[in-house]
Amino acid sequence: MNIEYRRPTKEEWPLFGKAVSRGFGNHPPTDDRSVERWEMFRQALSPVGAWDGDQVVGTSGSFVSETTIPGGAKLQAALVTIVTVAATHRRRGILTNMMRRLLEEAHERGEPISTLWASESIIYGRFGFGMAGQHHDSTIMSEKGVFTHLPEMSGSVHYADRARIREIGPDVWTRTAAVHPGMPQRSPGMWQGDMPLPEAESKPEDRRFYGVYEENGKAEGYVSYQTIDKQFGMGESDLHIKEFIAATDVAHAALWRFILSIDLIEEVKFGTMQVDDPLWWMLSDPRQLKRVPYDAIWLRLLDVERALSARMYSKPIDVVFSVDDEFCPWVEGNYRLTADPSGKAECRKTEDTPDIVLPAASLATCYFGSVKFSDLARAGRAVEKTAGALLQADRAFAAEREPWCPLHY
Ligand SMILES: CC(C)(COP(=O)(O)OP(=O)(O)OC[C@H]1O[C@@H](n2cnc3c(N)ncnc32)[C@H](O)[C@@H]1OP(=O)(O)O)[C@@H](O)C(=O)NCCC(=O)NCCS
């Protein structure tokens, strides 16, 4: 089997799009707007395809987005997307070859980290990605959403349309992203709907309702949702939150109160709830909020020195990590991380003896600060060589907020 790996040409782009849709069990949309948006996406994407003769048998790509890391700084991340391999060519190493090329190209462009959403949690660990952030798939019966605690609110929620969300969204998103490790920026093209992924509303049933929380004329948060009719218009519907972006705690509480005040709703579902969402603490009967955790943010470190030097640390640290990395050999090596009491750090390659030995995926898992090195060691995913090093690393890497990624790509 002679498979060629390369970027699709402009002429091949529609065929490439067809393979992406088929890989996820869809037919490609043919309306003019979708075709135009797919073409716009080409300009933002660094794709890698696999060809068997003139057939597209593998698709993948990444686009760059500034992503927040603990302490509030941002790193250019390669967001990996549209990964598919044709069922006719499965388990012959095509994904492996595409991933190698994607990650090498991202490294050459100087992107120090890469992130993705995984359709199955079995796929990406072998490529050095670690599960770096969980989300909650959550459900609550609307009638059980009774509050005992709410912060003081001086503003109010208003219904809005998509045009208004495009107007206020970028500022609200950027302010929200500043506190959430793992949250990428959304490009202007995405806000305008020129890129097909996040705001796709091509089918009538995808149409959303919007609410905006404002204080003194300034938007502080918004929510978008759909209602799914359960009884042919004769009774209650379920409400699915599609996006919930709040730049302040007050906006967050106000939008939850709005959602749980909507009439004729049986269940409210929110698939991408933050693990530290305070709704639980606002309810009179918290157990009514059903939360199922799942792996949401997968992270790959492509430049350990830059990634570890750029984030802030909660406690001083002086530890040498030995990082194993067969898939991206330039990452492999020993790294000394030192941080002072202000939280600022330096990370450099070293020949010094390691205190902790671990694979690249484990270091990535702990990077956003929501997973402890000691927990990974107990699972056999890291080894302590110097007593106390794991505890030191646990304390230093702890972050103020849990990672969160409301952008699905
Ligand atoms: C996931 C997918 C891209 C894998 O492609 P592939 O070319 O078959 O993967 P490879 O042959 O490179 O697999 C590499 C290794 O991962 C394993 N692997 C890959 N996908 C796997 C899966 N879904 N389940 C179990 N093992 C898997 C392979 O068995 C192989 O293991 P080995 O090295 O021990 O032999 C393909 O199955 C697919 O298109 N799935 C549907 C779309 C999808 O889920 N895409 C991912 C979006 S995040």
Please give a structural write-up.
The protein is of the alpha+beta class and 409 residues long. It has three domains: 4-116, Gcn5-related N-acetyltransferase (GNAT) (Aminopeptidase, 3-Layer(aba) Sandwich); 136-293, Gcn5-related N-acetyltransferase (GNAT) (Aminopeptidase, 3-Layer(aba) Sandwich), CATH 3.40.630.30; 307-397, SCP2 sterol-binding domain (Nonspecific Lipid-transfer Protein, Chain A). The protein has helices spanning 13-23, 32-44, 94-108, 162-177, 188-191, 249-259, 279-282, 304-310, 360-367, 373-378, 389-397; strands spanning 4-6, 46-52, 55-68, 74-85, 113-116, 130-141, 156-160, 209-215, 218-229, 237-246, 265-274, 290-301, 317-324, 333-339, 345-350, 356-359, 383-384. The strands form two sheets. Strands 1-2-3-4-5-12-6-11-10-9-8-7 form a twelve-stranded mixed β-sheet, sandwiched between helices. It has a five-stranded mixed β-sheet with strand order 15-14-13-16-17. The two termini are 31 Å apart. The mean pLDDT is 95. It binds coenzyme A (COA). The site of coenzyme A has 18 residues, from strand 4 and helix 3.
